[in-house]
Design brief:
Helix content is 36%, strand content 17%. With 384 residues, the protein is α/β, with parallel strands linked by helices. It has one domain: NAD(P)-binding Rossmann-like Domain (Rossmann fold).
């Protein structure tokens, strides 16, 4: 089949293209090579046999050109960051997706399947259980007043006790930052317009995807990028809040398998699927994994800082996808090893660690909590 992959020069897109190419599909890429993600232009790993269109998903003419003769679309192009350029998130993620379906309907295209990249971020703070009150809630975002005090955990709105995080499933959503809001609206556009106009569509809510080809410059690439670069350059990385945040990491190889599975399965049509690793790790636990893989012992910087828009915990229930025959097979250790190998193959690498952190500080995205006695005690305990 002829497959269009938007954002095909990126992390998930390029790995998906490799797998599709091995299956014998004809591939076309639509990508704008946005900086700083693609600071050095078109990546070397794009196969020369793949057709490449330099264009933007916000441009209808680019969609019209890219969709000609296409049977399948992997719509993976996205804008993701922590910066407060709010309109950009919706122009790229929401309007770009609407244009895909607009062109498909206007041109009466016969699309076999559209797979849209969504995100675990749509859950916001997620679902919690209060044992004392025996109640479940979809938590609201933490207030700036709470974060400035260094009070990181979600507490019950009735009794004030700390609540237990519950892995979230696809029927739930509570988007709260600009990225999450844009991805949830993207999902709704794709699934509802797809159903109305008989365009089989699947939305994939990726957890934190890890592996080689993650951009060195994209702050949203997450802990693997920050920690691995720090270990590689023998520097101490920042860890936000207290490092006890729980995260759900999934290897890029498992994500690619999921992407190909939903292409082949009609049972996936018009559904949303969580794509996660099936196990939670604290940020501190993940940093320990990175240190072991890189064979370093560098204490992190726990300075009571936090990022505006971060969630306390984020873990996805993957049972819907496993019911289709998929299972995550690769560990975070493999993701880090593969990323280390990727780093060691690079040439002329600048010291880029400070770029994203300094930019977020300049834009007031990274902030420092007040030095309360409780916060100082937490930090001292970690040092001991």
């Amino acid at each position: 089949m002829k497959v269009l992959v938007t954002g095909g020069a990126g992390f998930i897109g390029s790995h998906t293209i490799d797998a599709l190419f091995k299956q014998g599909h004809e591939i076309r890429i639509l990508d704008n090579l946005q900086k700083p993600v693609h600071l050095k232009g078109k990546p070397f790993y794009i196969p020369k046999e793949v057709e490449f269109i330099l264009g933007d998903v916000r441009n209808k003419a680019d969609w019209e050109k890219a969709l000609q003769g296409v049977e399948v679309v992997y719509h993976l192009a996205a804008y993701q960051d922590y910066l407060p350029d709010f309109s950009t998130f919706f122009h790229v993620n929401t309007v770009g997706t609407a244009l895909l379906y607009e062109v498909a309907v206007e041109k009466k295209l016969s699309l076999h399947k559209v797979v849209v990249a969504s995100s675990q971020a749509v859950y916001g703070e997620g679902r919690y259980l209060c044992d004392s009150c025996n109640t479940f809630v979809m938590a609201d975002q933490r207030s700036q007043e709470q974060l400035e005090k260094g009070d990181w955990d979600i507490v019950c709105y009735s009794c004030g006790k700390e609540m237990e995080y519950i892995p979230v499933w696809e029927e739930l959503a509570n988007p709260q930052n600009q990225y999450a809001l844009s991805k949830y609206s993207q999902e709704k556009i794709a699934l509802n317009l797809g159903y109305r106009y008989h365009i089989p569509t699947v939305a994939m809510r990726y957890s934190i995807v890890q592996g080689p080809r993650q951009s060195f410059y994209n702050a949203y690439s997450g802990a693997n990028r920050i920690f691995s670069l720090s270990a590689f350059m023998k520097k101490s990385p920042p860890i936000y809040e207290d490092g006890k945040q729980l995260r759900d990491f999934v290897n890029i190889g498992d994500v690619v398998k999921a992407n190909l599975l939903v292409l082949a399965k009609d049972a996936a049509n018009f559904k949303v699927f969580n794509v996660g690793g099936g196990k939670s790790y604290s940020v501190l636990e993940f940093y320990d994994i990175v240190q072991k893989v890189f064979e370093v012992n560098i204490p992190p910087r726990l300075e009571g800082t936090y990022r505006v828009g971060d969630t306390r915990h984020a873990i996805s229930d993957i049972s819907s996808l496993t019911s289709l025959g998929w299972q995550p097979e690769h560990s975070p250790e493999k993701s880090v090893r593969d990323y280390r190998n990727y780093l060691e193959q690079q040439e002329d690498m600048d010291d880029i660690l400070d770029y994203a952190e300094n930019l977020m500080k300049k834009m007031n995205v990274v902030r420092k909590a007040a030095k309360s006695d409780r916060l100082r005690l937490k930090q001292e305990k970690r040092k001991i």
